Amino acid sequence: MADINFRTGDVLEVSCPFIEARVADVSGGHVSIRWPWWQNNPDVEWIEWNGNVAIARGPGTPGWTNELFRTEPSAELLQVGAACRVGIPPTVVHVIEAHSFDAPLETGWLPRPNREIVVLRRGVSEDVNAVEQGNGLNPDDDIPLMIKLVFRPYAFLNLGDDVADRLGRAWHFDGLSHPRFHGAS
Fold this sequence. Notes:
The chain contains no helices and 13 strands. The radius of gyration is 20 Å and the shape is elongated. It has strands spanning 11-26, 30-34, 39-40, 52-56, 70-72, 83-100, 109-110, 115-121, 135-137, 146-151, 162-164, 170-172, 180-182.
């Protein structure tokens, strides 16, 4: 579980140790992996999750730029029934959405998410006209995600905050009309 109160703009390093899995299906754009971390939710009758998760097959396939999970060997080489490993190599992302749910969502699998972050890989810009973009992650589910906060842009300053400018100089915010500089210039 990640003990970070995520917010839009956060820059994170996300990874997940690779674990053994099996290929359930292959199409031109995706490889479906028998997901090793979630369980089917028998209490949800209106969603029948088959236990598989589709992963983009390679750089020429739709969704590849959003895909965080990778396989070993590469998904492009996998065939139905093949053994593989699935995980996330250390990847820098930025949060474009952060959601919390009063009641956990019904997804068809367990554990049910009570929050979600939607992230884009480093170097991918948010498209405000896109209906759907990014990769949704539940930081509290059974996938052993390792999430490290790399950078948090300031949405606002609180009294007493210390910040650094691009030259590395420290500034202290005390609520006056001008922040105070700390240190030698």
